[in-house]
Structure formats: structure tokens, C-alpha cells
Amino acid sequence: MFQSSTTRSNVLEMLCGIYQKLENVEFKYVTLVELKSMLGVVQDLKSARLDVWWLRERLVKVCEALQLSRGYHNLKMALASNCQDIERKKKELNIKGQAKMEKVSLQQKQVSTKREL
């Protein structure tokens, strides 16, 4: 396939570099840009008729997992924000409810005072 041993060596180093990066880096530190760059390299190697389907498959799965993880994180943040809003509204309603109860109680006292007179 590649006539030059230097070219073969470089291609092998690229493959090993991608594989090692996937093995050694914690998932939370992998970026989508890095993964797409790796996919680009793998696509180039595939175009050169190298059998790299296994690495492409793994990169695609990691990309999907990263996107799902980010989506989960965004949903979790939205949930926390919504829970805070709900608690704030409950407190507001409770305060308004207490004020209304106090107003009703005061009105009842006024009515009973007027009846006594």
C-alpha cells in the first residue's frame, strides 16, 4: 500500500496516537472538536484503503456519548433552575396566602366588632 517505510511509520503513529488518546484521556476532558479531528484523520486513512472501521466506529460512539452527556448535563441544570423557581413561587404563594388569611381574619374581626356595636 505505502511504498515508503517512513509513510507507513507515520500512518501507524497517527493510528496509535488516536487510540492512545482515547484510552488515556478521561471522558470529561475529551472535546467534540478533538473527536471530529480524529474522525477526519481516520476518514483520510480509510480513503487510503486502510482497514480502520473499528477505530471510526469507536470514535463515532464516543462522539454520541459525549453529546448525550452534554445533553444530560444541560437537562440537569434546567431541572435545578426549575426546582429553584418552583420553590421561590411556593414561598411567594405561601406569603400571599398568609397575608390573605390575615386580611380575612381582620375583616372578620371588623364585622364582629360592628355587630357588637
Automatic annotation (TrEMBL):
It comes from the Eukaryota. This is Uncharacterized protein. It comes from Escallonia herrerae.
